[in-house]
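Dear colleagues,

As part of the handover before I leave the project, I'm documenting each prediction I ran so the next person doesn't have to rerun anything. This entry is a single chain, and its sequence is reproduced below.
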Amino acid sequence: MMSLIRCAAFITLLVYTGATFASPVDLKNTGKPVYIESIEIDDERKKDHWSGSLTLGIAITPDYLGADEHTATSVLQLKASYRDTLFIDNNTFGAVLHSSRFLRAGALGRWNLGREDDEPLRLSTGAKEVGDTFELGLFAATSLYKFFLAAEAYKGLGGVHKGFNIELEGGYTFELNSRFKVSPILGAKWGSDKFTNAFFGIGGDNPEFVAYQAEGGLYEIYGEVSGEYRLGKNWLLKGAARLAQLQNSAAISPIVKSATGNRYQLSSYVGVVWLF
C-alpha cells in the first residue's frame, strides 16, 4: 500500500513540476539540495527505494529577479529520490553518478524560470519579458556530520540564453532538540556575459530607452535560515527566509536601479510537509 502511495506522489510530482514551468514564482527549494538530503533519510522510509516530501504552504517572493515588489502565493514544493540515485526537485532533475563517503557528483537539468512581462518595468526601462530556458549541468557536493557544501554548474541550451552559471552553497544544521532543527546557509551565484545580460540587460531596439549590456561575474550573494519542527512521524512544519544582494553588473542594471527595482531580494515561505 505504501509503495502505491509513493508512486502516486511521484506521479503528482511530475505533473505539478510541468505546471510550475509557467509559474511567475520561482519554486526552487530552500534548505539542503535533494541529493544531499536523500542520504540522511532513515532506512524505514527507504525500504521500497522511494523517498521524498511534499510541502503545501505560502511563499512570498520578488515579482522577478531584481524587483522591489513581492507576491504572496500558495505553493506546492515537492521532492523525490529513487535509490539515492535519481532525483527530482520541482523544476530540477538529475542523477548521482559518483557516490563516496565525502563526495557525491552527477548530472542535472532544470528549467530556469524567466521573467513575465511587468508593465511598470517595461514602461520605465524598456525591459521585455524573459522566457524560460532549459539548462543542463553538473553538480558536486559533500556532507560531513551536519555540514554540507554543494556546487552546481549549468549551460543554457537555447531560448533566452546559451550562457553558463555557477551556484555555490554551504550550510550547517543545528539540532536544538529532538523535534526542532535550524540550518543557516550561505550562497553565491556567478553568471557568464550571456547569462547575466539575459536577465539584467536592456536591448537597443527601442530608441526611447538607453541600452545596457550586463557583464558576467558574481551577480548574487545570499544568506538563509531554514527551520523545521517535527509534528509527527511523517509530518513537519517547515519554513525559511532568505535575503539576497545583487552584485556588480546586475546591481547597477536599469532594471534594478529603476523605481520598481531593488538590489536586496527578500523571500520566505512556511508550509506543512508530508514525508513519504
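Residues 235 and 274 are 5 Å apart (CA to CA). The first strand starts at residue 50 and ends at 62.

All the best with the project,
I.
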